[in-house]
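Session log. Operator J.P. requested a structure for one protein chain; no other inputs attached. Running the standard single-chain path with token output.
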Amino acid sequence: MKKMLVLSLVAVLTGCAGMIPQPVSEPADTVAQPVTVIHDSDDMCLVSEDTTEFEHQCDLIYWANMWIKADATAWPQRKNRIDELGDTLPDTIERVILSLPVDTPYQARLRSQHWITSIIDKLSPALQPLVKTMVDAPNNEMLELESALVILNKVNAEQAQASEALQHELETQQKKLEELLEIEATLMDKNRSSQQ
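Structure written below.
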């Protein structure tokens, strides 16, 4: 009897131990990333010192105004300007800026993402986090959203086709059922008339 009592007590205590909440460790990816802050004393040139000099390389207002003008310009005009530009660093920066507005088609935005990747290391270290935050991340987000929309549209189209096929099949089955009911009614009528 004592053994039974001890075994029951051990079972209850073991079960209760399982109910005591264990401390949950935080996932490893929640570690705060270092944040880069731009200070007044930072070099505000767009490119690093070892990059070839070009006009407006230290004039962020010029590039911001270009972005504002690009946003107010229709895509076909921006596309023509992009096609006219060369492969130099300032031209590539301009092509990226011309591709930033939201009405830029997916393919052009994808090409712009490649341009961003190709020039990010040539930008000044102080401005790289700013460009990643204001240009790279939103551009990537737009690409992902547009890709998701394309996939959802394909899925919706497939489901609409499947629904139409099922609707057609249902109509066909209803017609067959109506024909069978007519045949049954005719047979019943013949059977009644033959019994009289």
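Operator note: Residues 177 and 183 are 10 Å apart (CA to CA).
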